[in-house]
Amino acid sequence: MSVGIVGRRKMRELSRRYLKVSEDHDVLSFSYTEAKKDFRDFPDGVLYLGDIVVCYPLAQDIAVEENKMMDESVGELAEHGLLHLLGQHHDEN
Known about the structure:
By secondary structure, the chain is α+β, with helices and mostly antiparallel strands. Helix content is 46%, strand content 17%. The model has no long low-confidence stretch (mean pLDDT 87).
């Protein structure tokens, strides 16, 4: 799994390219297994979950709004992205 930290412009570009919408997102997850559609096809036998991309300026906005430290805000967004990679989505409890 990789975690990238990007600015608004890059996040918007990723949103346009992969989600076909031009919106700001605080975090995006790109699952390796969903793209491959095969959980067993890993060349070195290691499970690769995917990529998580966090938008730093939006994480900063959240930190200010919720009176949190930046590392806590970024960590929570990365955790949210990880849950998506593990198959949990917003409509589930």
